[in-house]
């Protein structure tokens, strides 16, 4: 892709994580925290269902940014803050805005939004576009 | 302005333990990840394209790089204890620093990941990890402790592959804070 201008809005992407994905991601990342795969335990901690892993949010932030950036784009860094909890089956939206462009390096302000538009995760993703 | 005092004895103990640990780096052997490790990680992310590409590279005898956040996303590289040594919430002591025996619960506050060089299948990886900060805070949900943990993943020649700063939020489990 040609380098975008600062302020460019990326097309939002809607998705949901299944409880199967949360279980498999916990297994493969050696994460035995019960809130991610044990709905009864998650309820005991005040969550309506099993909780999406922080690092799965990080994957979503960065993978959507790379898809937007096009073939050959490289991830340089990703940082995020968990503002609210998301759970299995919940409709979420990835949204991002180009905050700066330096040559081929593009920085995005990225967000994961809940169905009501409130922020679930906020962060930044830096990618280098393919030459 | 004076910071509010810590009212939870459990959180006070977390803070005390963390302050003792700050700057004490501990090395971990992450082992030698395989193409299968990478592909299983990708499968959990529904990334069939990565799997096809990785297996094709492997078949050609070419190096296979890990998915970008493979190192950062893995909770622990230790073998892990048997179930009876886990905390009631399922976490091992290594994943829940400064909280052993305390009535607290934890959630992840977030991460900052800097990618320097991707790990390649068949190459040994080590990590060095430390608590780097501990702060007491009051928020909408009550009081909590923010633990900052830094992990640097290194290749056999000691050069950095990935650097991860994570924030662990520790809450008192007895006071009903949410």
UniProtKB/TrEMBL annotation, chain A:
Gene3D superfamilies reported for this sequence: Hotdog Thioesterase
Top-level taxon of origin: Bacteria
InterPro entries: HotDog_dom_sf (IPR029069), Mitochondrial_HTD2 (IPR052741)
MF annotations from Gene Ontology: (3R)-hydroxyacyl-[acyl-carrier-protein] dehydratase activity
Listed name of the protein: Acyl dehydratase
Organism of provenance: Streptomyces antimycoticus
Highest classification ranks of the organism: Bacteria, Bacillati, Actinomycetota, Actinomycetes, Kitasatosporales
């Amino acid at each position: 892709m040609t380098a975008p201008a600062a302020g460019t809005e990326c097309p939002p992407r809607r998705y949901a994580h299944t409880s199967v994905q949360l279980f498999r991601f916990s297994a493969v990342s050696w994460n035995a925290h019960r809130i991610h795969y044990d709905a009864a335990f998650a309820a005991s901690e005040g969550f309506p269902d099993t909780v999406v892993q922080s690092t799965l949010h990080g994957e979503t932030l960065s993978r959507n940014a790379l898809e937007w950036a096009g073939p050959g784009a490289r991830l340089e860094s990703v940082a995020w803050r968990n503002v609210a909890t998301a759970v299995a089956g919940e409709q979420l939206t990835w949204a991002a805005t180009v905050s700066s462009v330096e040559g081929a390096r593009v920085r995005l302000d990225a967000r994961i939004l809940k169905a009501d538009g409130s922020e679930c995760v906020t962060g930044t993703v830096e990618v280098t576009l393919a030459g | 302005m004076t910071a509010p005092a810590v009212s939870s004895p459990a959180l006070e103990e977390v803070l005390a333990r963390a302050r003792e640990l700050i700057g004490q780096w501990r090395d971990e052997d992450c082992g030698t990840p395989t193409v299968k490790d990478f592909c299983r990680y990708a499968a959990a992310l529904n990334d069939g394209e990565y799997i096809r590409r990785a297996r094709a590279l492997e078949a050609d005898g070419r190096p296979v790089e890990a998915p970008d956040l493979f190192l950062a996303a893995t909770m622990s590289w230790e073998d892990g204890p048997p179930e009876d040594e886990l905390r009631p919430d399922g976490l091992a002591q290594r994943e829940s620093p400064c909280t052993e025996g305390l009535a607290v619960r934890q959630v992840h506050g977030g991460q900052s990941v800097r990618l320097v060089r991707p790990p390649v299948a068949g190459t040994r990886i080590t990590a060095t990890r430390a608590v780097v900060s501990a702060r007491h805070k009051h928020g909408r949900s009550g009081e909590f402790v923010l633990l900052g943990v830094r992990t640097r993943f290194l290749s056999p020649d000691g050069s950095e592959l990935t650097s991860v700063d994570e924030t662990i939020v520790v809450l008192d489990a007895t006071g009903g804070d949410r």
